[in-house]
Amino acid sequence: MRRLLTGEKNIVLKQRIPLLEKSFQDIEELGIYLHIPFCEQICPYCPYNKEIYDPDVAARYTNAIKTEISFYSDLIGNKPVTSFYIGGGTPTTMLYSGLMEILEHVYKSFNMRCDIHMESHPNHLSSDNLNTIISMGIDHLSIGVEALQDRHLKTLKRPYISKEVKAAVERAVDKGFKCVNVDFIFALPDQTYSEVEQAGHALVEMGVDQIAAYPLFLFPYTQMGSTVKANNYKISSIFKRRKMLGILESIFYSAGFRRTSVWAFTRPDVPKYCSVTVPLYVGLGASGGSYLKDVFYLNTFHVAEYINTLESGRMPIALSLDLSDNMQMAGWLYWRIYETRFAKIGFKKRFGKDFNKIYGKYVRLLSLLGFLKDKEDQIILSDKGTYWLHVLEDLFSIDYISILWGDSKQNPWPDKVIL
Ligand SMILES: C[S@@+](CC[C@H](N)C(=O)[O-])C[C@H]1O[C@@H](n2cnc3c(N)ncnc32)[C@H](O)[C@@H]1O
Ligand code: SF4
What we know:
20 strands
């Protein structure tokens, strides 16, 4: 697959700071991702870069982020920022310890032309905290619900019971955000079909605008990934997952939701909640990743190293990868397919090439297999195609992420990472 799409034998990220002035020159608009790497507890299945929240570290992190923003404000100048996402970790750990200061600096430094999307933890969503979130201008909120049956919440070691998480979501829904998204994980150890069905209905009844339903992915470097075999958990097979996703699809479709990405289902007339909505973006913070047409680069994952590097006036970039034309096109295609529908004209606009000439034969084959519909300028994935994309993602992307994130967690400044 990799060779077919990118022409590369290996993808090698190297310890090298790219020439950023050049990469920013011909960009018209971009997105910003801000990573908050703190949590109150470490969940056993979670692959993201995070550590236990400490107020002193958060204060130094705030200053480091502001320094990184100032560095980019010269490079980005007046270019419009059309997507802004705050993820983690748990961004709401910094609700009263630096988040507002960071947001003010973002608005002072960049030409912001978008709403703010932010992730949150259910235990942080008191009515007062929700009011604080709204007063910061955050109008799209995501909540990590994960499960709605107490026994599964216990397996995931989530620090709440079903009744409490439902109340937190309902409080958020009542506040009138433009979009409330909930994350839900299915195919949990020993989970039954009827539990998935019950949870699917409960998610709809809570009145949320969007549901992101992921199967449990097992990353080898997480506690659950490494102990799963030892505990003899029965992780659902590919076909069991397919059936569970089918149950959720039919509940969400009959409640009027539409599919807006591989994992997400959104109510009609609601703008979808999505991490970065534009193809090019800059990632701020420890482990922030940036994608700028011909280069991808990644900050160090190590929070203390991230802070120290910026305090000594250097950039915290740990690894970078120059992207060949084929890699740029394959990357573009991967993200557009992830959104489950796209216009071929977007490809022409970005690369000046005819989409059908480059990918036409694959599209014809996938269309014959019933994986997608090729309607003039539009490519639309079917539910079957979307499901097999899940499987591919599980086999390939999770593998890539495990290597890249696993190595970056172990070593703040790896010489190179080979994918
Ligand atoms: C950064 S967390 C969400 C915010 C907050 N930290 C929380 O836990 O509530 C992002 C989401 O990724 C999903 N996630 C994390 N690990 C996962 C895994 N191993 N498999 C599938 N989904 C996962 C969860 O649904 C989680 O809510
Ligand atoms: S799932 Fe959320 S709270 Fe748990 S470790 Fe991951 S980011 Fe932190």
